[in-house]
Write a structure and sequence with these properties.
mainly alpha, Four Helix Bundle (Hemerythrin (Met), subunit A), 13 helices
């Protein structure tokens, strides 16, 4: 067995993935402990050693994956993501790179590429981005229209909240998030009793309708991603005909299991057809 093949087995093994996940979690805890002045003063050297060790493991892992996959390494977006995250951590510790050094905590985001379930969620969210952009545009339009209306209606009543268009939009964004919106509304209603119509209507349109559309689009994208994975798995299972002409012959035991599965599926289709025929019209 060649060195590249052994490296491939190591990198793709489940134990190696668990090890990298443990290193990421340990490094995240270390970076969190560094924020404590007391702990940093007592155990700063040990925390630094752990951080450097974790970074070294990440670099070695990326080098192994680059050695195994070659230029195909850069075709996978998750590999490029991991490379960018680790590259940020390799920035020098000089004052010019203080911000980059503070971004070392981004290494925790490598959990997204390591854990398959997280990868599926992020992939679904990226798939839903076009729909989310449209909803975001609708939300901006609602905020702008409501901001103009609020400025004209309440500028003299509550100038600290609605004195200008910018203040009105920021206040309406605060109201949309539910942060102390009743205090703002009651202050305006003390002078304009019918102002509740505007605030309730804005909340219904923005918080209860537009924001929920984001959730609906994200859930729909995740369901589509799940269905696509299931279809791909079923297609791969059905396309396997058990012949030994392919590059990787299937063992006889596996061929027998696949044959039984196909037979069971055929029987289920026949039973469904019989039941559909027996049902009264």
């Amino acid at each position: 067995m060649s060195l590249r093949e052994r490296s491939r087995q190591l990198v793709e093994s489940r134990a190696f993935q668990y090890f990298i996940t443990a290193v990421i979690l340990g490094n995240a805890a270390t970076l969190g402990l560094e924020t404590s002045p007391v702990l940093h003063e007592r155990y700063g050297s040990a925390l630094h050693v752990i951080d450097v060790t974790a970074l070294t493991i990440f670099v070695v892992e990326l080098l192994l994956r680059l050695f195994v996959h070659g230029l195909r390494f850069f075709r996978d977006p998750w590999n490029v993501f991991d490379l960018a995250i680790v590259s940020v951590a390799l920035a020098p510790a000089s004052s010019a790179f203080t911000v980059l050094r503070a971004m070392r905590i981004l290494r925790v985001l490598r959990l997204v590429s390591v854990v398959p379930s997280m990868r599926r969620v992020v992939s679904a969210l990226l798939t839903a981005m076009p729909g989310m952009v449209s909803i975001a545009g609708l939300l901006v339009l609602v905020l702008y229209v409501a901001g103009v209306m609020a400025t004209k209606l309440f500028a003299h009543t509550a100038p600290e909240w609605f004195g200008s268009l910018g203040q009105s939009i920021f206040t309406l964004f605060q109201i949309m998030t539910g942060d102390s919106w009743s205090e703002v509304a009651r202050e305006v209603m003390a002078k304009q009793p019918l102002a509740w119509i505007f605030f309730v209507g804005f909340l219904v349109v923005s918080a209860f309708t537009v924001l929920n559309l984001f959730i609906a689009v994200a859930v729909s994208a995740m369901e589509a991603e799940h269905r696509a994975e299931q279809s791909a798995a079923e297609s791969a299972a059905e396309s396997t005909d058990g012949s030994a002409e392919g590059p990787t012959p299937i063992p006889a035991q596996d061929r027998a299991v696949l044959a039984e599965v196909r037979a069971l599926r055929a029987e289920l289709r026949e039973l469904r057809a019989e039941l559909s025929e027996r049902q009264p019209v």
